[in-house]
């Protein structure tokens, strides 16, 4: 490989090799190395690069989404969400796209007519990382710089699949609509060259402060805006309980364990109706009925009944209906217009 080619590659990946032979090996296919006995191929480097990529992304996920609070690790996103983000980043199509956009596939040492597409381009990406790892003595900062240059993971981090607009704009529009003030929206640079963004929300005499850290200025602004936006949606605005309650049976049980309700009982029974001539499937003529009885001190007993296709669905639906009624009572008794309902339940009763 020509020195000019090696120089161009190193400029594109944002790393300079002490041993350019490793870089040349990363760009050498197996078929080409068989025809040139003195040359190694990229396969071994690709093995190590695969492990390096997982580590670097895990580190970046931790820095961007997670924090230590009360000696425990917490994340703004679920494990499932992080897994989906990781899968999107490391899939061969995405790695191959990064190689193509960087113009690196043109430097491959391959046989005439040999095609390198899809997975092979992804392997080249990982082989480059493997070569950088070995040449740098597994220097994490050098590896992260290469990943950031080629893969640009921060662009993925700032994507919100369920919100296509910028959270900054979403937050401003939401606050304007509900007369919520945004004060002290500021950003500062940290000693490690990361950014911290802060803002304060004010509504009806209540104040809530937010602070988020990210590697980029826009990342910090988007992150703190996202946190404030979701807080308003969940805690400061009325939302039907059906939209955010999960595992209603467990939620009712938690209220009972915390002695906010005295008891909760379920009575389920199967209803079998006569099937018409066109209804041959037994399941289509079968329903389950479930009644949920909740007792609270100094509050009248609550009884709800529902019908669903299965016993489990009927029990969950009955518990959800009962819990919604209870939360509506709390909204009226404790919060007036429903503001702070979820926070009230979580902090005081569950």
Give the structural class.
alpha+beta
Could you state the order of secondary-structure elements as H and E? HHHHEEHHHHHHEEEHHEEEHH
Number of helices: 14
Order of adjacent strands in the largest pleated sheet: 3-4-5
Residues in helix, %: 40-55%
Overall pLDDT, averaged? 79
Percentage of residues in DSSP E strands: 15-25%
Shape: elongated
Brief sketch in words of this structure:
The chain has 350 residues and is of the alpha+beta class.
Keywords:
three-stranded antiparallel sheet; 19% strand; 350 residues; 8 strands; disordered C terminus
Account of the 3D structure:
Helices cover 51% and strands 19% of the residues. With 350 residues, the chain is an alpha+beta fold. Strand 4 and strand 5 form a beta hairpin. The protein starts with a helix and ends with a helix.
Blueprint of the fold:
Blueprint: H1 3-13, H2 20-26, H3 30-35, H4 43-65, E1 66-69, E2 72-75, H5 79-90, H6 92-102, H7 119-136, H8 140-150, H9 153-157, H10 167-177, E3 181-189, E4 195-203, E5 206-214, H11 217-236, H12 248-257, E6 263-272, E7 286-296, E8 299-308, H13 311-335, H14 341-348
Antiparallel strand pairs: 1-2, 3-4, 4-5, 6-7, 7-8
Helix pairs in contact: 2-7, 4-7, 4-8, 6-7, 7-8, 10-11, 12-13
